[in-house]
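Sat 14:20. Reprocessing the chain from the morning session after the first attempt stalled halfway. Input below, unchanged.
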Amino acid sequence: MISFKKKRFVIVPLLIFIGIVIGLGLSINFNTQQVSLAEKSLVPRETRKELDRISNALSQLAAAVSNSVVNVSTTRIAEQEENPLDELFNHPFFRRFFEEPPGLDEPHKQFRTSGLSSGVIVSGNGHILTNNHVIEGAEEIVITLHDKRTFQAKIMGTDPKTDLALLKIDAVDLPALVMNDKYDLRVGELVVAVGIPFGLSHTVTMGIVSAVGRSNVGIVDYEDFIQTDAAINPGNSGGALVNSNGELVGINTAIFSTGGGNTGVGFAIPAKIAKSVMNSLIEHGKVIRGWLGVSIQDITPELADYFGLKKATGALISDLVPDSPAEKAGLRQKDIVVAFNGKPVQDATILKNLVAAAVPGSTASVTVIREKDKKQLKVILGELPAEVTQEIAEAPDTENFYGAHLRNLTPELRSELAIPDTVKGVLVTDIEAGSQAEDALQQKDVIIQVNRKNISDLRSLQNIRKNFKDDRDILLLVYRDGGSLFLTLSP
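Finished this time. Tokens:
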């Protein structure tokens, strides 16, 4: 017989051996199952291949264009703000204790401030485009390339009207982006933004074109922006917006934001505008624009109804500059421009941009609607002159015109308010809140026509007013800020 001790000696190792075998089996089975789960993908193989192809393409696109975007570092001289304690220490109480109160009569200290933004290499021999607001007032501009080389930049020219600036560095064989000024972007098209947001070098973001031809944003005089949801943040200004071909289609310039960061609404200056401005700065040292010599405004639904138009499109001529190209060509006040050089004119901004892009001295074809008839005129364009603004002072009120307080123009008022002798009419001195005139007229307007009849003084206005019909809108022609403007007022 085998003793109990001998049995235990044999059984215990056997149980341990069996346990190890079972454990190894379970472990192998578990590991096999775990690896199998990790390698199995829910995404079909063909889909993964397509996504990989797109991912690789975007990566190659980013790598190809990033080297053409540079770091623009600016240094400005700023003046220290006035010491808020100056007025306090100037009080007689403190003068009793201080022979010379601290901070008084000391010149304001100057100090240097720095800024960091973006620019785009547009020629191999060192031309760089950026925003005017990036370098405006800068004492020093330093460009840092992708390979960390730094250069002092020279300003070749600026154009505040489009917020563009052209810089030049002493370098050759630079990786310049191709500017596609003939390409018409489509809404929904893929675009990539490259810049230096928050000082983070060569940041690439992707999005789509949200809209094209954005105007009336209030950023610059000539607006035809590309709107994109590609993330554009502070520091991206002057950076590149490129299409899927790696071509420069826009210069990033601004964002719509309530907190300073990206909200998915960014704006870029189209390449066609940027290239035109660049070429003009290189050739002439300034931007030369065509000039028609008219004041224009959009056609509102009310104006369209008044002039008998089927659609509220076109640019209404509200005034002409004497002896201007428009006046010499026979254009008239109240003409509605619907085409310029064969291109449709939907609103005043489009006409403004088309005229500006035209060459001074060239002959342009202008199609207008005059008294419901379509006419085509030939205009020899001039060069856009320097703008002159006039400030108008306030004057006391006399007559009430649907909530607008009016008074006659006198020689003293003309001199005080800088109103030309050729402007005849009555002056708007105040507007009552909630009145019919509030939405149409402004303080300091001069009403020169009512329902196409000239106004010389309040008496002539009163005579015309007798024939008003309560169910008809009133067409006004007013003089405002140095030009004329058509308005409708609903009584």
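The two ends are 126 Å apart (CA to CA).
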